[in-house]
Structures are given as structure tokens and as C-alpha cells.
Amino acid sequence: MDAVDARSWLRCYRCWSTDLEVQVHYEGIHRVDPETGERAEAVDEVQEAVVQCLECMHDQPHLSFHNGRVEPIEDRWERMVAGIPWVASCTVAVDADEVESCSGPEAGDALSYAAFGDHGTREFFTHVRFHKHEGETRIVVHLLVELYARSAEEATQVLDDASRGALTITSLAEESRPPAAGAEDRH
Questions:
Q1: What is d(CA 57, CA 178) in angstroms, rounded to the nearest whole number?
Q2: Of 164, 163, 171, the residue nearest 144 (C-alpha)
Q3: Where is mean pLDDT largest: 53-57, 59-63, 79-83, 170-174?
Q4: Residue 180 banded pLDDT, cuts 50, 70, 90
Q5: How far apart, in Å, are the Cα atoms of 4 and each of 9, 11, 26, 81, 150?
Q6: d(Cα 165, Cα 151) in Å, to the nearest integer?
Q7: Could you give the CA distance from residue 18 to residue 11 in angstroms, rounded to a whole number?
Q8: Helix (H) or strand (E) holding 80
Q9: Count of CA atoms in the C-beta half-sphere (13 A) of 28
Q10: In Å, how far are 11, 105, 126, 159 from 55, measured between CA atoms?
Q11: What does the buried/exposed string (b/e) look like for 9-29 if buried means 16 or more CB atoms within 10 Å of the residue's CB?
């Protein structure tokens, strides 16, 4: 993508700021050259990166870092940048084995992840209201979910696609978008 195209997606999806940073975390195991002491071949490498807005401090799940460059995630960026926030009240019934923990400080993230996978912990703003066990094999998670979409139909489809179990949406309401970081940033 060229620089002109980048203006439409290289921004915060919440406040439209273009003041972004990429945080790169790298782990690697490398062989050592016995003659020079220099790093030789890589045995194992893992690189994770998160793009974050410096204005509102939100992570940018519509952007990725690949080959030294921030790039849009094609199935997500337009919906998140051009879309509006929607709030859904919903339940997701999941296999109990999918829930890592349902009590303690990690319970909210674990239940959100069980319900929506990475979307539940990275893309959506989730609030687990409560959960209930149905026998020993199933857990029903009750959540409020904020997500970005261009229409109610698209919001419903995104939730349905992300759901890792039986999804029931009890309400879906359009919310107002937070104000832009600055009018000059809005393109």
C-alpha cells in the first residue's frame, strides 16, 4: 500500500490519532559460532508486536507488524476505522474444558477468551457479567461486548464468526464514537 492509502488505516480506530507506536517483543535461541563468538544460525525465534495509540493508549487490533512495517489486517481495519461502536449483551455457551479459569483475577480474560478467542481479549472490549455452570461439561458466559462495525448486521456477523460456542445476542445497541483526537487528523 502506498502512503496515500495508509492515511485511511494508519490511525487509531477509537480516536483517529496518527500518533502510534509499535512495541516489539522478541525471543530467540541462536547457535554461537565457536570460532568468532558471534551469533550464528537461529534455532528458534518468536516475535510478537502490538501497535498502540499514544493519545488514548488503546491497542490497535486492526494493525500488525510484519517485515519491519505496520500493515492493516485486511478483514478488520475498514470495519474498525470506518465503523461505529456497538454494544451487545450476549451469552456464549462453551465446553467447560475451554475455560482455563473461572475464578480469581484471571477469570474475566479466561472467560472472554473461551467465549470469543483472541477477539475476546484483543479486539472486543468485553465485560463478563457472570457465568454459570451447566453440569460439568458446559459453561454459559454472560457478557457485555463493545465492538466496531458499520451496521447491526455486520456487528452480529462479527460476533457470530468470533464465537467459540453457542451464541445468543439478547440486545445490540449503537453507541456514539469517542471524539476524534484532533480534527486535523481526520481524513
A1: 13
A2: 171
A3: 170-174
A4: low
A5: 10, 13, 31, 16, 23
A6: 23
A7: 5
A8: helix 77-82
A9: 12
A10: 11, 28, 21, 28
A11: bbbbbbbbbbebeeeeeeeee
Domains and CATH numbers, the chain: 3-79 (no CATH), 83-174 (3.30.70)
pTM higher than the cut 0.70: yes
Residue 101: C-alpha distances to residues 98, 118, 133 (Å): 9, 16, 12
CB distance 20 to 181 below 8 Å: no
In this model, does residue 121 exceed pLDDT 90? no
Instruction: Count Cβ neighbours within 10 Å for each residue of 101-113 and write b for 16 or more, e otherwise.
Output: ebeeeeebebbbb
